[in-house]
Write a structure and sequence with these properties.
Blueprint (H helix, E strand, L loop, with lengths): L2 H19 L5 H14 L7 E5 L6 E14 L2 E8 L37 E4 L2 E6 L5 E3 L11 E4 L4 E5 L3 E4 L3 E5 L10 H16 L6 E5 L3 E4 L14 E6 L2 E5 L30 E2 L2 E5 L3 H14 L7 E25 L18 E13 L2 E9 L11 H4 L21
Parallel strand pairs: 5-11, 6-12, 7-14
Antiparallel strand pairs: 1-17, 2-3, 2-17, 4-8, 5-7, 8-12, 9-11, 9-17, 10-17, 13-14, 15-16, 17-18, 18-19
Protein name: Tunicamycin induced protein
InterPro entries: TUNICAMYCIN_INDUCED_1 (IPR053283)
Keywords: Signal
Length: 415
Amino acid sequence: MKPLLRFGIAFILLLHSSLASHIPYPKAISDLKDTIVKGFGFTAEDDVTITGFDPRDAEVGHSVEYQFDLEIDHKVIPFKLLEDVKHWDYVDLPIFRAEAQSGLVPKRASADGLPVLAPFVLAGPMELWIHDANDMRLSLPHDVDAGVLKKVVLAEGAAVTVKGARSVSLRQPLDFPLPLNRTENGFANGLLTLAEHLRHASRTQGSPILSLRIVGPTSLTAAPSSDTTTSTSTSLKLKRLAPGLVELSSPLKSKEIEPFSRVDLEGEAPTVLTPTQFATLWPLASLNGSNANLLGFEKLLHSVLGAKAEKKGSFRLLKADVSAQTYVKMGFKAEKKVKKGELEGYYPSWRTKPETVTTHFEVLAKVDGEKVVPEKVMPVEPVIAVDSVAPNLLTQNVSMSKTQVVHPPPNPFYL
């Protein structure tokens, strides 16, 4: 290689590294870095340098987050579960742009760029409080102009398909009785029994005891008929109770709600199981007792309750929140200066001791508005370096003439 060409390549690499080191972090990344440094407990005396956090290398994915708070014997036990991210991609998020530091990015992202939950079916009796859904479409099954809805009451026998929701949460605590039935034959019998108890209590009381808060739904559509021979939606009646408050009821009030055999979600919900002839989990009429997540929740509940699951009593569900979230995955490294005598015993005496120790990490963080909140920081296994040692060092500088000669046993197959 010519000297001029080598000089040009070296200059380009030096310029690239210099520019990369001077690129200012967006505020979201700077806050993420500060949070991780505080979490590690690093101080100025530790001589630790944190580098990385390049937004251009950040991978973005969407997942569903579950949060529950259970009260058992006056003790509150919180749970936070996260589904595996199925696909990671490089996405230019607005909060990662340089304009975000100067406040040029809108305070609120458009609804089109936010992740949403897969469509699901809810059956009454219950009430739905609608938030951030000024352009929500109401179809019964034909479109109805009911204005801006804040609350929808589902009467007994009414069921709707909810699309475009960003989160669903419980508005008020619920009490459930014990004992809890065991899971048998691949079905969450315990949760199905609790759901039936809650449904029976909602029927006997004057007003629905189940109240849900739904954020950002784009449409409420009359759920498909339970008749297996047709996929047409069941017609619902609308009754205006007050401005922004309507009640949806079914003309077939006397007919018992049966598990839906077909749920037309227009191919938008590959993660939602269509119910079969098996019992569904009320009020989620699009979820049957063999759902994998449902079985996992029941096993978790059994492990938390322990022996109390088989005894008479009760427990309270204080919080239940299911939301679609955006997650970011990026790498960084921490370099620490080695103090004298700190690495004694880790390296042989003949080897030169490193002046710094570098550890690589990967952070999984959740995008919360204009903030990036770290959820999990994992160390990344580095590439193991292979040491090459001169033979004279292994033999302690002993001359080969003084080395003992070893004669291997003869091989009868040699001539």
